[in-house]
Structure formats: structure tokens, C-alpha cells
């Protein structure tokens, strides 16, 4: 029962951490969750969580890395493969060697092999911690892709280095040749196992679907179990479970692109389910990390044989050494790549600022703590492992310090990269630009067969653009004097143009009179808004009362309208003609008047009249078969969403929008796509 209540408390703490982050956005969610974890550990619950490192890796790290592998930008991962490998392999081994000797020199009571073990635990950056950066720190895309790729791969090299360092400490023997060969087998073997098991899973699901089993719950359960089974299978044959789940995640991302329409509903459910799972697991990782800190701190803090100030200075010095080594490594590679590979011509010389950002972004997290906690208590000869508590304490301190640097220092240095998050106006302008690009793409795709459906979708995009443009004038949308004056001017144009059509013999007197009556109503609404609303409401109530009190007379009126349908049809056709011609005229005049000074006023009006015009055209061209038309509309909607998604990705890759904005736009788009697909599947 205590365990159940403890889990409930952790889940409640996840909700509280996100709520607190809304009020204190300057503090990152991981730090808040670590703080809440410490508080939970200090509460006398009568239950203490004993963290098993192996269980922690399979329960939390495996599914999180699997999901990261699915979400990683594959093109960026391949494009940056050389720098990623140099960081994930080269820097890890350099860290083990350099920091290991530095720790042994700084703290002589820690033997060299144990110092190498601490350095190996500190070497890998944490994928979960790195992903938490992207939510609030807007790093350049190249740096963020580099960090994500590095954190996905360097766990294997760090853990293998740690295992050999521990083996050397426990047994007193070490072979560089054996260690190198074992690393290759463990790393490559892990990736191969992940790929093979993923392919087998795809074949199994294909066979199951062939039997007619399309149950979404069944398939979703298999997908949730996938990272756990692959990790355990890889570890069972002594290869890297971490690299196995990363490779499996990438394979699932590739397979998803080939998915047939039958898998659309599964894809929708999968995204929703994994979003909840990842939200909970991310929170639990840092909360559990926080719950472990008090017991770790207590052991070292109460040890009279070592000064607390000295221990804190060790943490600061080791963290600085890690950052400096990372800076030197990154700067050397980028400078070498620029000078010798590109001849210093093709690319701009790498800046010091970019190297600093990359160095400070090397956040350590739960993998480091889980690795440190797996240090054995005893050596083979029965002696206690030297300075085990101090090593774990230092690892915990480095985790906290790197998170603090990423939370408070990194945002200041990365602020200049927030090219599109400066204000709501810039974000709206970017969204409008994307939607207009989609409109141009849709116009180019128009054929006689899809003309009506495409125009219907174009109208939806016009409406979205119009809503965004209206947002420039504030949330309450109170009409300014300038806008009211312009709308009244537009009505004057329409009156004059209607009279011109009448004098040219293109419309009848009755049509002109009816349309000008409509314009007069609009003019009255603009000039006397409140009175017009009252009159409209009174007229509506009168009509309702007539229908309720005299239903027979209402039916007779309807029958008379039906009898006069052919004549009414001609009249409506002429009214549509007048409206369409007037809207075209207004659009032409507004475009001629628009300049940089009045763009915020004129542009939304142009969009509004384009929406009206397209609605008129759509009424004329709408096909008689409703089902076929709706099917064609859904087809065009999905094409438009793909255009939109491609444009978002292109802007993101060019560095014109931040990762945050790109993610938000994709989430909104995924939601729209979900509704469209669900309508089709129901």
C-alpha cells in the first residue's frame, strides 16, 4: 500500500511541477521536479524508494530513448554524423582519460580506476535532460540536433567505459585491446539487435493484420512493450540495450513514413498515448533523482573525515573541467573542419559563442546518477569500494550544477537566437506567411476534377489567415476608427460599382435595388451598431412568433417560394454575379492602396473579401454529390496539411523559426490532421 501511495504522490508532484512552471517560468521543469523529489524524500512517509539502477534504465531510460529515436530529425542526424560520433565516442573517451586523471590528482583518496569510473559516469550527456532544454532554450538548430544525436549515442560509450573501469577497480586487471574489442561488439551489436527485432516486429504486425486483426488497442499494447522487450533482449545477449532501443526508434520512424491508410488511426492513437507516457516518465525521472539526493548528501555531509566546503569545491572544479574540455574539443573540431575540409571558404568561420553554447549545453542527468549508483559496495578481496559515497555525491552535484547552468546562464547566451519568439506579432506574421505559401501550392494543384473541393479548402485557409490578421488588433477585436472609415469607404465603392453595372446593362434594376438595400444595412450596422443589433433581434423574434402562432401561413409561404423556384433561381444567380463582381473590384482597389504604412489595416480586409468571393464561387460550382465532394475535400485538406508541414520544416531547417515555434505549429497541424482522419475513419 505504501508503494502505491508513493507512486500517486509522485504523479501528483508531476502535475504540481508543471503548474509551478507556469508561475515561475524562469526555473526549468526538471529543476522544479528535483526540488519536489527532495521534499518528498524528507516527508516522513514510512517508505523509502531503493533505486535499482538496472530496473531504472529499463523502466524509464529505454522508453524515453525509444521515443527520442522516433522523433529525432533523421536528415540532421545523418548530416551531422561525423561531429555526433566525435562527441559521442571521441569526447566520451577523452573525458574518461582526462577527467579521470584530473579527479585522481584533485582527490588522491579516489584510486585511478575509481576516478575513471566517475569520469565515465559523467561523460555522457543525458537525452532526457537535453530534450528538456528545447522547451525553453532556443538554441540554433545545428547545435540542438548535435546535442540530441550525441545524447542518443554517447550513453553506450559511457556505460561501456564505466563497466571496464569498475572491472579494473574490482579485479585489479585491465586490457585496452579487450576493452576496445568489447566496445565495438557491444555498440554495433546493440544497434543490429534493435534493427533486427524492429524488422521482425513489422513482419509480425503485417501477418496479424493479414488475419484481419485491426484492433487498435492490441497494436498499441505491442508498441508500448517494444522498447522494454528490445532493451531486455539486447542486455540478455550482452550488447548495448540503450543503442538497441535508439536504433529501434529510428527504424519505427522510417517505417511510419511508409504507413498505409489502414494505419492512420493507429498513428493518431499512438501519438496521443506516447505523449502521455513521455510526459509522465520525464517527470518521474527527475522526481526519483530528487528523492535519492537527501540520502546521498547525508552520507557525505555527516562524514567528519571530509570538509563540506571542500566537497562542494570538488563539484565546481570537476564541472568546470568538463565544460572546458568540451569547449576545447568542440572548438578544435569545428576549426579543423572549417580550415582543412572546407578550405575556409564554403562556410563561415565557427564562432566562439557557438562553441560556448555547445559546451554549456552538455547537461548530465538520470543516466549519470543511475550509473554512479550501480558502483558495487565491495571489491573482489572483500574490501569496501573506496570513496563510493563521495563519488555518488560528486556525480549528483555535477548533475545539479549542469542543470542550473542550463536553466539560468544558457538562456541569456542563447537569447539572440530567438528570431521568431520576440513577440506575438512576429509569430503571427510567420504563420500567415506559411499559410499563404500553402495557398499558392493549392492554387497550382487545381484541376477541373478537384476545382470545387480545392476552392473549399482554400476558403478555410483564407479564414485562418483572416483570424490571424485580426489578432494583430488585439484579443477583443474592437474596431478602430481607421478600420470603420475604410469599411464605409468600401461600401461607397460598392454602391458606385453597382450603379455602373446597372448603367452598362449587365444587371436589372430590381437586382441593383436588392443589392444596394443589403449595402445600406451594412452601412447602418457600421454607423449605429447597437441600434442595428436591436432591430435585427426584434425582426428575428417577429419571424419566430409568426412560425409558432401561424404555422399554416408559414407552410403556404414556403409552397409559394417553391412554385416560383425557376424565377428565384435566375434572380439569385444575378445577385451572386453582382456580389462576385463587387468583391473583385474591392480586392483590386485595396491591393492598389496597400503599402508598408497601412498593411496591417488593408491586408486583413483583402483576406476577408477574398473569403467572401471564394464562398460565392463555391456556391456556384458545388457538385451535387455531397459524399464525393466531401471525400475530395478531405483529400485536398490532407494535401494542404502536408504542404504546411513541409513549409514548417523548411523554415526550421533554414533557422528562420525556432524549435519551439516549429513544435507548436506541428502540434496544431497534427490536431487538425487528427480530426480530418477521424472523420474519414468513423
From TrEMBL:
Pfam families: Na_H_Exchanger. Residues 9-414 form the Cation/H+ exchanger transmembrane domain. Gene3D superfamilies: 6.10.140.1330. The chain crosses the membrane at residues 32-61, 82-103, 109-131, 180-200, 237-254, 274-291, 311-336, 356-378, 390-413. It is found in: Cell membrane. Keywords: Antiport, Cell membrane, Ion transport, Membrane, Sodium, Sodium transport, Transmembrane, Transmembrane helix, Transport. Belongs to the monovalent cation:proton antiporter 1 (CPA1) transporter (TC 2.A.36) family. This is Na+/H+ antiporter.
